[in-house]
């Protein structure tokens, strides 16, 4: 998914100071396009926290009636230095990219696109989709991997199922501690370039689960629906709870309503990254050059000899998205 803000904020993101206990990240509404566009609720990045592990972007949307909003209509746009992670609860989205991959995003199936040195892709909700509901996330690539060739992966995890719970691990590995028998473990085969975890968690009312996690990882819990306590703290719907490194267990407890939540986490990136629009780089000069190259590619005429960082696209597709205007100042950290 593209960041469709007309004046996106620049952010230099690094490993944030950890806090004792849980930090609550409040969502902000961002429209994807025009006046009838679908709104998303963005919890990463924001002023107080820009990264959870290498996770650098989280948009949560729906349930959205496509007949009213028009759904997702995001034509070709570029990315650098990141991986996009698509996870749906309801609906279907068609993905097409300049590395030659064409796939459908469906509930319970993760689609992970690695931009590496540069890729462009489009996303459109399918004609049969009536309700869209899900999340779009980005993972910042470490410096050792950010110039790799672009690629794509698709995986449908087999849920871990127990008394009142279901856990689908789409990235990394996760263990559910089972007091009534053997612990349950799942590990995704999808390649990442830092230690990461991503999982959808469903809980029936009154159910609690204990998750075995790595003490050097930091984690976030996004509540999609229901009543949920993270440890002893109750989490409001649409909010993201940040849990700093240091814990080897996370306890999630459903209240009177069934719960759907996402767990993300990983080792702190410990690298400073600069995010602007759909680009992740390291310096002002890099991001300016990415924008220049994208604008040159989408404005090129047949036969023009230019460097095509973002690849070729099939004929007959909708016009690509132009990059927003750069701010009139040097891209810099947000205070």
From TrEMBL:
InterPro entries: Pirin (IPR012093), Pirin_C_dom (IPR008778), Pirin_N_dom (IPR003829), RmlC-like_jellyroll (IPR014710), RmlC_Cupin_sf (IPR011051). CDD domains: cupin_pirin_C, cupin_pirin_N. Signal peptide: none annotated. Residues 39-139 form the Pirin N-terminal domain. Pfam families: Pirin (PF02678), Pirin_C (PF05726). It comes from the Bacteria. Residues 200-296 form the Pirin C-terminal domain. Belongs to the pirin family. This is Redox-sensitive bicupin YhaK (Pirin superfamily). It comes from Paeniglutamicibacter psychrophenolicus.
């Amino acid at each position: 998914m593209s960041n469709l803000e007309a004046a996106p904020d620049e952010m230099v993101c690094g490993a944030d100071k950890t806090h004792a206990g849980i930090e609550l990240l409040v969502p902000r509404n961002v429209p994807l396009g025009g006046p009838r566009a679908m709104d998303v609720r963005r919890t990463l990045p924001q002023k107080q926290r820009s990264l959870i592990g290498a996770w650098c972007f989280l948009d949560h949307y729906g349930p959205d009636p496509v007949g009213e909003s028009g759904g997702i209509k995001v034509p070709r746009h570029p990315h650098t230095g990141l991986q996009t992670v698509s996870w749906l609860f309801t609906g279907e989205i068609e993905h097409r990219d300049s590395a030659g991959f064409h796939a459908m995003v469906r509930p319970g199936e993760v689609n992970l696109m690695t931009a590496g040195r540069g890729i462009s892709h489009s996303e459109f909700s399918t004609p049969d989709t009536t309700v869209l509901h899900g999340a779009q996330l980005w993972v910042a690539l470490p410096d050792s991997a950010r110039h790799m060739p672009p690629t794509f992966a698709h995986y449908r995890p087999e849920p871990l199922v127990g008394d009142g719970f279901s856990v689908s691990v789409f990235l990394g590995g996760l263990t559910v501690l089972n007091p009534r028998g053997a612990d349950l473990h799942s590990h995704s085969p999808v390649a990442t370039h830092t230690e990461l975890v991503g999982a959808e968690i469903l809980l029936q009312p009154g159910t609690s689960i204990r998750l075995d996690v790595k003490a050097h990882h930091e984690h976030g819990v996004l509540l999609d629906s229901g009543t949920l306590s993270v440890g002893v703290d109750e989490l409001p719907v649409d909010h993201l709870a940040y849990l700093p490194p240091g814990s080897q267990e996370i306890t999630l407890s459903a209240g009177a309503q069934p719960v759907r939540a996402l767990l993300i986490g990983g080792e702190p990136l410990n690298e400073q990254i600069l995010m602007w629009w759909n680009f992740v780089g390291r310096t002002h000069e890099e991001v300016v050059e990415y924008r220049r190259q994208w604008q040159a590619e989408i404005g090129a005429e047949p036969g023009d000899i230019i460097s095509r960082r973002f690849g070729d696209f099939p004929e007959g597709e909708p016009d690509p998205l132009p990059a927003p205007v750069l701010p009139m100042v040097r891209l810099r950290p947000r205070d």
